[in-house]
């Protein structure tokens, strides 16, 4: 049996569906048209996209539930309890409520920007999921530059935030948007430099290759400086406490999404958590070995069906749990402090991490971690 | 961004109530502030003029929604001074008990709101959780959690229920423990210190000139606490220290309030011990008939004829959780107070807003206002 | 501090305009003065007697006259003192204390809008608790609560 991949599943599904359609159409000329390989491939891609969309949205909603329950524990309360088992369906109920709500738009708001901002923000966050590999075979094909592409799409967000902030014609939104732009630009640089360290060691921009390079040891050990920089910068990019200044509810009401309600607000909310999920996934992919497990783990634990996805999601949720922990225990920093940390601390640290990575590659072998493969290998 | 005015309020997470802080900002810097009050004005002073003396107590609970007991106490002291009534000693102790539990409740509420302004989420819940224990105690002897209506001119309404002392001692032990946790969560955090140190500085002389009182003044190193300086009720018979800090900033106010809570626990333990050993009446036995009897019969012996109490003006001052609260009650011999006037500590603290807000960042406004501990109910009355 | 101390310190400065110092329970005393001597009284209380904290300024409407009541606190003596001056209702104005005690600013705004006492040279005599342009002074005795036809709010737009 050949390995089941996400693409093969969706292609088979498309093939079977179209075959069924052809059977209904009694093998006429119409049937020949629908059984055309191009049509099958096209439908396969669509099904593939639909599966990705459903998986990412479902994960996001579960992620919100997970955060609510975890925060509840940190705060000595129980979190969502009433809808579904242990409140599992609470977010679906919330989503349904937001879906039904009327979207109001301020009188002087710019209509195009007001709707374009949240939509583009949501879409750009969703697109990243088409790029990230989840497990062996369960990715959209090994793009050689998938890491770069993911980061490029990831960094679109401040633009869309700023557009929606400015077009909602509210001073709080505008301030939130400006803060968001300043913050994301300041933290984009250390984020990318930390990624450079990983790329130097792995010798590839392909996420799949980076994961396979971690077969021997995960990168968090030798690249611990890069990991610290990456996590800090990622917290800022996700706009979570302690770096949630753009929507600091104490002074800016709700920051750049003050004027949004209903489904547009739901877009923002979902996209925020999509980005949080992307951030956690990137940390797992770059530093925690992706779907691979170290050699001392018994093979029974890594060979059951969908074991890769299981370990991958487990790691992702644990990483996100760390972010929740941070959120539960840290106060919010101030704009100038945030920017000072970004430019004065994180950028030198990230440069240091690049140098360390280069040194690691030239030394090749480390006493504890073993040898790195040759670059590009 | 050039200079612009933004309205922080009347419905804004920073306000903790209903008021409007107009802020002129230049980028992220505050250039000028102008508080606008009155959104919660209910005319309590006016309504009081049409009520019997004891009926005003209902309004006092609504005056400050986090420190109703303290405001009841303030009014009662003013009314007793105007009518020249003395409560029995046990009532004095019970009032101190109420005041200090109310101080705990109010400061816990302040803690919760203040850390929330800084973005600390968990301690907010911790503060609210622990405040609930205090409210439970209030409920056990007044029947209400927010609008108690417990004090009376000439005493208090009822004595404590059996078992109250043990329950409250348990709560006090628990709180004593939690204060350490609060400090660890706040003072132990570098970000907290970076956010709060040197923020919203208001030095002693300036604070006095602007009429700032309470924890804000004591955080500036001025040792003024009416419980010590001008003891009322039973405060001259309990042992406690005045909390002081000298940094005059947000951290200083935090330290003062935390220390005040510890001192409150200390006072409460003494008061509970005293109450255990001194049973007695809780209301004075000779009171004017028209105090709290709106439906008293009018006739030969009716209340309208009993106007032989002295006319006068009663001044009272207490150390409310937010600072120095003053009232005067004018009694012209009728069954209603002629004029009631209150001085709210937050009113004065807010009027000095430009001295401690200008020059800081917009992001600093919530922690600074949080450290002021605004309760709009008592400002607007 | 006793009422005699207040009398001794204030009498040379105010002369005739000091109408008397009476004992008042729980305070250093109640000083009555002519409104023409307001500023001198304030300065003497703050600079000579150490009453640096003006806790409250309030007004009482005695129908024909109105009384302005100042409550002061001295950190040295640990005592309150009352100042009061009486002004006729048809000409109710007195010098502002906000130049001496900045804290009097808001209290005087409130006294002005509630009891209709004008404070001369006040830097910022606007409405505080009532909406701008509110034409009434609610804490006057003539403002009745229980006659609905008079409760109708008339806002004069300015």
Characterization of the model:
The complex is a heterotrimer of chains A (377), B (381) and C (158). With 377 residues, chain A is mainly alpha-helical. Chain A is 67% helix and 1% strand. With 381 residues, chain B is of the alpha+beta class. Chain B has a single domain (48-380), classed as Cytochrome-c3 Hydrogenase, chain B. The radius of gyration of chain B is 21 Å and the shape is globular. Chain C is 25% helix and 28% strand. Chain C is α/β, with parallel strands linked by helices. The chains are: A mainly alpha (377), B alpha+beta (381), C alpha/beta (158). Chains B and C meet through helix 1, strand 6, strand 7, strand 8 and helix 12 of B and strand 3, strand 4, strand 5 and helix 3 of C.
Short description:
Chain A is 67% helix and 1% strand. With 377 residues, chain A is mostly helical. With 158 residues, chain C is an alpha/beta fold.
The CATH homologous superfamily of chain C is called NADH:ubiquinone oxidoreductase Nqo5 subunit
CATH fold annotation of chain C: Beta Polymerase, domain 2
The percent range for strand residues of chain B is 5-15%
Largest sheet of chain C: 5 strands, mixed
Q: Domain count of chain C, please report it.
A: 1
